[in-house]
Amino acid sequence: MAPSRSGTVVCDQCGRENRLPAAAEGTPNCGNCGSPLAWIADAGDDDFAEVAERAKPFVLVDLWATWCGPCRTVSPALEQVAHDLAGRIKLVKVDIDQSPRLAQRFQVQAVPTLLLLDKGEVIARQAGAAPAPALRKWVEESVAARR
User: How far is Cα 109 from Cα 143, in angstroms, rounded to an integer?
Assistant: First the structure.
């Protein structure tokens, strides 16, 4: 199982470094200027429910593998989307080789597989890599259709 990543993120507005846990209530804001922060966390079989399914914002799940070239290509684009939509989504990365139960549960047949969750329910799914603008459009359209 990949451990939950709690780490730091630099505020896109003021440049201040903030510590973020993998799971928490609400959405994170900068302790200095109050701006929404990009929330990126790792999850695995044992902590996916806490990190992803119980999160309040929409959750973009990246089911990936270390050996996958397209996964490495799309990772920076997903992180850009997390920054662009800070406060509106949380990006949760799941290494399928370390989390076989999640790979089976979500019937992953190709990587990367991207899921968009609303309170734990899959509301959109996409396989394959895409550039950041296309990913952002997909997320925004999926969220808008849900409201």
Answer: 24
